[in-house]
Amino acid sequence: MSKIQFSAQVRLVSDISRSKQFYEEVLGCEVNDVLAIRDDFALGFKLIQAATITDVNPNPAGKDQQTPWDTYAYVDTHHELDELYEELTSSGAEVVQEPLLMEADWGVWKDFAIKDPDNYVIAFGSGKRN
């Protein structure tokens, strides 16, 4: 079987220049003509100029979900998650969900979320098993 090396989520955006600037300056991605990548494609986006503003459609919230997510990315530890939160907020990220700690049978989960200029929500989380 062939091995997939990485993937990128497609984002239809209202202003390609503004989006490239956000993904580079705020999210810390390497940005070229169409790709915004970070950490060797651990986080990857293909940015495409939308034909019309109505084509830009971030996800709605799911059942029992307060903050809708368009992307969910993982880091190893809560400490790394806290560092990432500080990095992104100091770069000007708009936070839509402050870091939230949740306990479950298997351990403790923590996550937060930011949004891009088109209201796509990018969440980040980390877990710690009991």
Automatic annotation (TrEMBL):
Transmembrane segments: none annotated. InterPro entries: Glyas_Bleomycin-R_OHBP_Dase, Glyas_Fos-R_dOase_dom, VOC_core. Residues 5-127 form the VOC domain. Pfam families: Glyoxalase. This is VOC family protein.
